[in-house]
Amino acid sequence: MKLLMLGCAGILGRALRKELAASHDLRARDLVDYDIRDPAAFAADLDRERPQAVINAAAYTQVDKAESEPELALAINADAPGRLAAACCSRNILFIHLGTDYIFDGRLGRPYREDDPPGPLNLYGQSKLEGELAVRAASPELHLIIRSSWLFGAGGRSFVQTMLDKYRAGERRFRVVNDQRGRPTYAPDLARAIGVGLATGLRGTYHVANPGAVTWYEFAGEIFRAAGVAGEVEIVPVGSEEFKAPARRPRNSVLDTARFEAATGLVLPPHRDALARFLAEAGPQDPGSIGARP
Ligand SMILES: NC(=O)c1ccc[n+]([C@@H]2O[C@H](COP(=O)([O-])OP(=O)(O)OC[C@H]3O[C@@H](n4cnc5c(N)ncnc54)[C@H](OP(=O)(O)O)[C@@H]3O)[C@@H](O)[C@H]2O)c1
Question: Which residues are marked as active site?
C-alpha cells in the first residue's frame, strides 16, 4: 500500500518507518519537509504522491511546556489534524492519527475504554482531545485513531531515556512520582500494532499499549533492574504535588486495550519484555551499555 507518514523523525515515527518500509511504499516527512500547519504544502504532497493512507505521527508532545505555549500546542495538535483529515477525506484517503491517555482525568477506578468520557487535566491533553474530535468531524468514515500511552523508544525524549541519561550523568538518587499509573508502551510494538490495524482495515478509535500497568516509581525500578544497575541507585517515591510539574497529570491513565485485541487478534508483549528488547537493541553507545563496566 502507498503510505504517507508525517512526524517520521519522532519516537513513534522512526519505529513506524522501520516497521512499514519493508511491506509498504512509504513516503516519510517531518518538520524539515513542511509544517503540518501548512495545508497547501500538505495538499500538494497528497496530490503529488497520491497515497492510500496518511499516518500522522507528528505532534506537539511537550506536556509541561504546553501549559505556557497553548496557542502552539493547539495549532499543531488540534487545528492541524482536522485540516489534514479533511484534505484526506476529500481525496478518499484513510487518515490514521495518534491519541493519548492524557485525555482522561484519571478518576475512573478501572482501565479506560475507548468510549469512556474524556476530561483532560492539562493543555496537552486538551489539545490532543480537540485533535481527535476534529479528525472525527472532518473524516467521519475514513479515520483510524490509535490512542497509546507512556511511549519509549529510540530517538526522542522519554521517561526511560531521562532515567538512563541521569544515571550516566552520575545521579544515583531518584525522586519519582508514585501516584500516577499507566501502561508504558514501546514504540516499535505500537508501530507493529498500527501496521496490523491498517492490514485489518480498522476504522474508528482503539487503545493500544503494552500490557503491564505501573507507576512511574515502579517503572523506574524496572528500568534500572533491566539495565543491571538497580543495586547502585536509590529510588524514592514521591507524590505528584511534591513534584510540582507545570502540567497536572491523571492518577490513573491505564488504557483498556481489549477492543483492539479482539478486532485484530494481536496482544502486544508485556512492557518488561519490551524494555529488555529496547536496552538490548539500543547498541553499545546507547542505554544498553549503561551497566557495562570498562
Ligand atoms: N510520547 C508519549 O508518551 C505519547 C503517549 C501517547 C500518545 N502519544 C502520541 O503519539 C504520537 C507520536 O508521539 P512521539 O512521542 O513519537 O512524538 P515526538 O517524538 O515528539 O515526535 C513528533 C515529531 O513531529 C514533529 N513535529 C512537531 N511539530 C510539527 C509540525 N508543526 N509539523 C511537522 N512536524 C512536526 C517533531 O519535530 P521536532 O522534534 O523537530 O519538533 C517530531 O519529529 C503523537 O501524536 C503523540 O501525541 C505520545
Answer: 124
CB atoms within 10 A of CB 46: 18
Burial 236-255 (b: 16+ CB within 10 A, else e): ebbebeeeeeebbbbbbbbb
Strand ranges across the sheet with 143-148: 25-29, 2-6, 53-56, 94-100, 143-148, 204-207
Task: Report the nearest-CA residue for atom 21 of ligand 1.
Answer: 10
> What is the model's pTM?
0.95
The CA 233 to ligand 1 mean position distance, Å, reads: 31
In the structure, how many helices (H) and strands (E) does the chain have?
11, 12
Burial of 272 (0-12, 13-18, 19+ CB in 10 A): middle
In 3D, which of 117, 121, 116, 80 has the Cα closest to residue 102?
121
Residue 87 phi, psi (nearest 5): -65, -40
CA of 229 to the centre of ligand 1 (A): 30
The secondary structure of 202-233, three-state, reads CCEEEECCCCCCEEHHHHHHHHHHHCCCHHHC
Digit-coded pLDDT (tens) for 122-167: 999 999 999 999 999 999 999 999 999 999 999 888 999 999 999 9
Query: What confidence tier does 176 reach under pLDDT thresholds 50, 70, 90?
Result: very high
- The terminus-to-terminus CA distance of the chain in angstroms comes to 47
> What percent of the chain has pLDDT above 90?
93
pLDDT of residue 283: 56
- Residue 207 corresponds to which cell in the numbers above? 487503545
